[in-house]
Amino acid sequence: MLARTVENVYWLARYLERAEDAARLINVHTHLLLDLPAAVGPGWLPLIDITGSRALFDERRGTNAPHAEERDVVHFLLADRGNPGSIVRSLTAARENARALRDVLPAAYWEEFNGFFMRFSEELLTGMARRGRFEFLKRTVLISQTLTGMLEGTMSRNHAHSFMALGRDLERADMTSRIIDVRCAQLRPDAAEPGAFDTVQWMSVLHTLSGYEMYRLGRRTRAERAGVLEFALRDTLFPRSCLTCLSDMQQRLEELPRSGAVCDRLASARRFLRDADLAAIDPLRLHELIDELQRHFTAVHDQISATYFPQPAAPPPTVCYASASVV
Known about the structure:
By secondary structure, the protein is mainly α. About 70% of the residues lie in helices and about 0% in strands.
């Protein structure tokens, strides 16, 4: 399969997953703020931190702008075309990749995706308003999952399907780790004992991952720090846990040629995650652990890119001509 094709299908899955995760994140955070007193609520900036785009957000607001309001953050994450991680930019990029793959993907997939994108664009202004936002983002999540399900039910299990799964799993693991990192900083910035509203916020972590019911089903206990960390990072049955995503990637890579270097990077990430002592780790060390885990994810992506994707053409060598003496 052409390197350009596998790159397109990999990024199609990543961008679609990114849009879905951002939509879910905004909706869950809105409900979290309704459940917490104003003095306890974390505000809206944590969503910017989760996406790793604080510098760009500050730059686009301007240095003289007041503190971030709900409308600023929602617009930036949902509809700002200058933000590469916004939902509208992610869906636009996913659609362009899907267009390039029309000879590879089922025709019904492109028709469904294109129709969804047109409706999304038409309803975007309405969807940013608080009154219509919940249903708008809920539909975005549902259609994203529908599109993923269409491919799982109709696409041949070829290399294109494998790279689609690789992109989706890596994006999921990345977002899960970001949510854990920022939420932990909010929950216990410097307190030694859990706060009165910690349970509500740990429930929010699970809802953001669409994992609350699966957590209760598997662990039969309330949402608390140690249990949620273990579930979100290392549960072997929950499909959005970091370890499950990495394990699924390992299975996909074993089906691909020339995957040795990527498998080595992936094995290093899995070993690091399995060996971490989550029960004893304090908030500061947890932040350092998540940073290191993020570096492992970046290394896995870089190795996938170097192994399978088209590489930029090297610049022509510089020729130095020595000046000749004239005799």
